[in-house]
Design brief:
The complex is a heterodimer of chains A (227) and B (224).
Chain A (H helix, E strand, L loop, with lengths): L2 H19 L2 H20 L10 H18 L3 H4 L3 H7 L4 H31 L8 H27 L4 H28 L5 H31 L1
Helix pairs in contact in A: 1-6, 2-3, 2-6, 3-6, 3-7, 3-8, 6-7, 7-8, 7-9, 8-9
Chain B lengths: L1 E3 L2 E4 L11 E5 L6 H8 L11 E2 L2 E2 L4 H6 L1 E4 L11 H11 L5 H11 L15 H13 L5 E5 L7 H17 L2 E5 L6 H4 L2 E6 L2 E7 L5 H12 L1
Parallel strand pairs in B: 3-8, 3-9, 6-7, 7-8
Antiparallel strand pairs in B: 1-2, 4-5, 9-10
Helix pairs in contact in B: 3-4, 5-6
Chain lengths: 227, 224
């Protein structure tokens, strides 16, 4: 049995489900837009320049949006106990982890394609579009961190009765370093004069976090589902 | 052995199911039938003791056991928002089935769902969803069928299909373990009856020569 075939099948399944139901990504985008509007009003009027806060505003919005998306990541498996069908099949648990992480990564990326440009509209009055490529690179690294940690914690929460409560309690603290680094990287290129060495430092931190969480996930995921 | 907290749901069970044998497990509610079946399906780990499925120790090599298992549960274990075909394609890829598409067409035809192959399962009746579950279970030609109350949720058409499959399984040398409340059916679908009570085996005997009334009588004696 080819792991690549199994991985592709599981990712394709998640994307097919999302294309058919359009529940997760649409909800995440709407949530992010509403949150940005709330932050905009909370920080003052449209005339105030929030450029120097852009990193924090973007990544606080995306972190809560990620909690929403990750919280929905196993909804289809819980319905009709489909998860049992997957667990009885000879799929290595690490392949299940990888497939779910790829799906969450793609959902986050799809949301950011809309949200990152909107952040410029909501919060930034200075030059922003020049930095969008650098922001996108940091966002992809942050997405990897979110996807890997989110998959692990949503798997842990899956077997608890209070899963809707447990997931944010576990997941949000794990997101704090990601938010700090991603906000720092965004601020370095869009919050004022470009500081590429600062951007590089934050991106390296995100890369290290993603590698660390992938190792932790690989080491623990069997136990999450089999014990 | 398996326990939920302090309560031992399955305790001291010592069973062997041979190739071609169809074993029915019956017992009152809470007897440990479904827990035992979930252990055989590798969904629950034994807390103590040894469990070998299709020659593989499930603690050491669960994937080898899983490759040969077919599991039919109360729920059809298919995605409601995928079509019948998409569900079978998914499971076909997970089990690494060669000639996946041909096999899927054959099975959809077999369970009389070929005409509805492109419809989402959410639009299916309960009976149709269970027929799809039957196709899902048979897709990878499993050597051991594990069935949890299979007749409880099947319509007449699906029941006939399942009974035919159980007959074919015996003829092909495949084994089946059937958890059931409907002890009257045991004589028709199983070669051996095991009765559990409070997690322990209280009856284990062949059903050869028994009719539905005999099975019911032996069951009531064992659980009295």
């Amino acid at each position: 049995m080819s792991r690549r075939r199994q991985l592709a099948a599981l990712v394709r399944k998640d994307l097919r489900l999302e294309l058919r139901t359009r529940e997760t990504i649409v909800a995440m985008v709407l949530f992010a837009i509403v949150m940005m509007a709330i932050l905009q009003f909370g920080f003052g009027t449209r005339d105030d320049d929030l450029t120097r806060f852009v990193g924090g505003l973007m990544w606080v919005t995306l972190a809560f949006t990620a909690v929403l998306g990750v919280g929905r990541s196993y909804v289809a498996e819980r319905e009709q106990r489909v998860l049992d069908g997957l667990l009885v099949s000879p799929v290595p648990r690490v392949v299940m982890l990888g497939a779910k992480a790829i799906a969450i990564f793609l959902y986050m990326t799809a949301v950011e394609v809309i949200v990152i440009p909107l952040v410029g509209v909501f919060f930034v009055q200075g030059p922003y579009w020049d930095a969008i490529g650098w922001i996108a690179i940091a966002a992809l690294l942050a997405n990897a961190c979110i996807a890997l940690s989110g998959t692990l914690f949503s798997g842990l929460a899956l077997f608890t009765r209070a899963r809707d409560l447990i997931l944010p309690v576990l997941f949000l603290p794990a997101l704090v370093p990601v938010v700090i680094a991603a906000a720092g990287a965004t601020h370095a290129v869009a919050g004022g004069p470009h500081d590429m060495s600062e951007w590089r430092g934050y991106c390296l931190f995100l890369l290290a976090y993603a590698i660390l969480f992938s190792l932790v996930s690989v080491a623990t995921y069997d136990a999450v589902f089999d014990d | 052995m398996h326990a939920y907290g302090e309560r031992r749901a399955v305790d001291g069970v010592d069973l062997q199911v041979d190739a071609g044998e169809r074993l029915a497990i019956a017992g009152p509610n809470g007897a440990g039938k479904s827990t035992l079946l979930r252990m055989l399906a590798t969904l629950l780990r034994p807390r103590a003791g040894h469990l070998r499925v299709l020659g593989a120790d499930v603690a050491d090599d669960p994937r080898r056991a899983r490759a040969g298992l077919g599991y039919l549960a109360h729920d059809p274990l298919v995605y409601l928002d995928l079509t019948a075909r998409q569900n079978l394609e998914l499971y076909g890829d997970l089990y690494g089935i060669p000639d996946r598409d041909g096999r899927i067409d054959d099975l959809l035809d077999h369970v009389d769902l070929l005409a509805r192959a492109e419809d989402p399962v959410r639009a299916f009746s309960r009976g149709m969803a269970q027929r799809l579950a039957l196709a899902r279970m048979l897709l990878h030609r499993p050597l051991l069928l594990l069935l949890d109350e299979p007749h409880a949720s099947l319509d007449a058409r699906a029941t006939a299909l399942l009974d035919r499959e159980l007959g074919a399984a015996r003829d092909d040398g495949r084994a089946a373990v059937i958890v059931t409340h409907e002890v009257e059916r045991v004589a028709d679908v199983a070669d051996r009856l095991v009765v559990l009570r409070a997690g322990r085996v209280v009856l284990d005997e062949p059903t050869a020569g028994m009719d539905a009334r005999d099975v019911r009588r032996r069951y009531e004696e064992a659980t009295a």
